[in-house]
Amino acid sequence: MTRVLLAEDDPAISEPLARALRREGYEVDVRPDGRAALEGARDNPDLIVLDLGLPFIDGLEVCRRVRAMGKTVPVLILTARADEVDTVVGLDAGADDYVTKPFRLAELLARVRALLRRNASDIEPSNEMVRIDSEGRRAWFNDQEMQLTAKEFDLLRVLVREQGKVVSREQLMREIWETAWFGSTKTLDMHISVLRRKLGDDATQPRYISTVRGVGFRFERPEG
Fold first, then answer.
1. Which residue among 91, 123, 183, 215 is least enclosed by CB atoms within 10 Å?
2. CA–CA separation, 162 vs 76, rounded Å?
3. With contact defined as beta carbons under 8 Å apart, do 139 and 133 qualify?
4. What global pTM score does this model have?
5. Which of the 8 DSSP states describes residue 45?
6. Is residue 224 part of a domain?
């Protein structure tokens, strides 16, 4: 599951924002000050949403220290300062994007999705058994090229990218079919079944794609 670190000291903002992010299918770790945010950043979240006005260590300094640690995690800044100079300073500190308070929730969630997509595209999915060429949209299993439809390729790419993590049905429908999906996921289940067959996988004792009942699917990390 995609993990978001939310560093915000105002519960009136952090609590509804955390709920909205969780509804989107993300795991959310809320930190109320700069020191706690730095501790959370060491756990390698997939995205940091960072308020500039944090207690103890402000958001700009947190961002600088995160980059000084060598971490490339996307950082989305929340700022009450609409001044262009503050924005430029934030980006110079290593932030990837910013949203000005008060913000529209839909806009912030769109920025989150965009940063996560951008970050994912920078990482070529790999596994000891599966190799993926994202630009060429080709995949190999045991050094044999797989014959995949467009959606099968996208599904395999996301699962391998998140290998070892549970990917929710909602996230897969949103990322691959580009829709919010709250009902039947027969289409997704059908694609999972076909992928398993092409991997020689057994749904009852899967080596590669496991079902996490009530949540989604996990591409297993290779043993050893």
1. 183
2. 21
3. yes
4. 0.58
5. -
6. no
